[in-house]
Every structure is written in structure tokens, then in C-alpha cells.
Design brief:
133 residues, Universal_stress_UspA, TRAP-T-associated universal stress protein TeaD, globular, 5-stranded parallel sheet, Rossmann-like_a/b/a_fold, 5 strands, UspA, 23% strand
Length: 133
């Protein structure tokens, strides 16, 4: 069913909470897990905090270790760009069967909908998207 599973992660609690659902899905489907973190590309004068590459590598290693405790081998990917577009591009490159991601709920308002990464991924993804609230 879902043999290639893409799990985009960031430093949010929602991303961490989705990990258990991902682990269950990987085990149930005997799938291959890819953990992705996207570093937002620097924009001139951008005010938003962007984690340093070594922090992202640490995040990926922590996630990989957590899945290893569940007996799941995972491959990690670190990309730079706009998160929703990178997630969808990687899903396409991997020929992913599903993207599983956490949701902060910012897309529930008209103002937040344009900024919601999960909402953008749902609309752009080349495969099904499972959003874990």
C-alpha cells in the first residue's frame, strides 16, 4: 500500500506528535521511511528565525534515533527552499506513496490559510497527504 513514506519534520510539537502515527504506518505497511527537514531559503531582510544547518542536522538525527527505537530504519534528507514546494518536489523525486505531516492549525482561518504549509502541500502534492492534527 504505502511503501515509500515521506515525513517532513520541523521543531514544532505537532511534528513530534505525528511521529508515533508515522511509526505505526511504516510498520503496518512495511514501508520505507524518509525524514525530511527544509531550511527556509534566506531572503534579503527576512526577519523570521531560521535554524542553522547544524541544528537541522541534529533535528534529523534525533528523529532518526527515535524511529530506530521503534525498530524502523529511516533515511534523512536536508533541503533548502520554500517548505511546501520542497516537500512536494522531494515526494515526486522519491515517488512517495504518502506524505505524513503534523499540522499547527494555522490554515483554519482565512489569514492563516495562505501561510499553512500543510494546506499548500495538500494542494500541490503528487501523492496522498495524511495530516496528523
Amino acid at each position: 500500500m504505502f511503501k515509500t513514506i515521506l515525513f517532513p519534520v520541523d521543531q514544532s510539537r505537532e511534528s513530534q506528535d505525528a511521529a508515533e502515527t508515522v511509526a505505526k504506518l511504516v510498520k503496518f505497511c512495511d514501508g520505507r521511511l524518509f525524514i525530511l527537514s527544509v531550511q527556509v531559503e534566506d531572503k534579503a531582510g527576512a526577519e523570521e528565525a531560521n535554524p542553522a544547518p547544524d541544528m537541522i542536522d541534529q533535528l534529523l538525527q534525533t528523529a532518526k534515533s527515535a524511529f530506530a527505537e521503534w525498530g524502523i530504519e529511516a533515511e534523512t534528507l536536508h533541503k533548502e527552499g520554500q517548505p511546501a514546494f520542497c516537500i512536494c518536489d522531494v515526494a515526486d523525486e522519491l515517488d512517495a506513496d504518502v506524505i505524513v505531516m503534523g499540522c499547527r492549525g494555522v490554515g483554519l482561518t482565512d489569514e492563516g490559510m495562505a501561510e499553512s504549509v500543510s494546506n499548500r502541500v495538500i494542494n500541490l502534492a503528487p501523492c496522498p497527504v495524511l495530516v496528523v492534527p
